[in-house]
Design a protein that fits this description.
The chain is an all-alpha fold and 110 residues long. Keywords: Cell cycle, Cell division, Cell inner membrane, Cell membrane, Membrane, Transmembrane, Transmembrane helix.
Length: 110
């Protein structure tokens, strides 16, 4: 008497073994296909994320340039108003302005 017969366990039939192995091979194959699909999706999403990150960096750089430009234009008006209020500076009328021109040297005439 066999050990399996003593325990009441019967040996599976060869057809049952083939079916179980076939199902297991199909499950492994499906799992492999899903892994390939997930890697493809990951690479596609990563490429898209990289594009968005580059665009974000470009927009941040442009925003910084615009802030500097805005501060520059604001500083010009502020300098003019401080010159008038604190230093009492003003633009002279046309009657009080004079244009001075220097005589040309011989090298400049050519």
């Amino acid at each position: 008497m066999d050990k399996n017969e003593k325990l009441g366990i019967s040996e599976p039939s060869p057809v049952k073994r083939v079916v179980v192995y076939t199902v297991m091979v199909l499950l492994v194959f499906c799992s492999a296909i899903m892994v390939v699909f997930q890697v493809f999706e990951y690479r596609h999403d990563y490429r898209e994320l990289s594009t968005y990150m580059r665009e974000k960096d470009d927009l941040n750089a442009e925003w910084g340039r615009l802030l500097i430009e805005q501060q520059t234009f604001g500083a010009t008006a502020q300098i003019g108003s401080r010159a008038v209020t604190q230093l009492r500076m003003f633009s002279p009328p046309a009657a009080q302005t004079a244009v001075i021109s220097l005589p040309m040297t011989p090298e400049q005439k050519h």
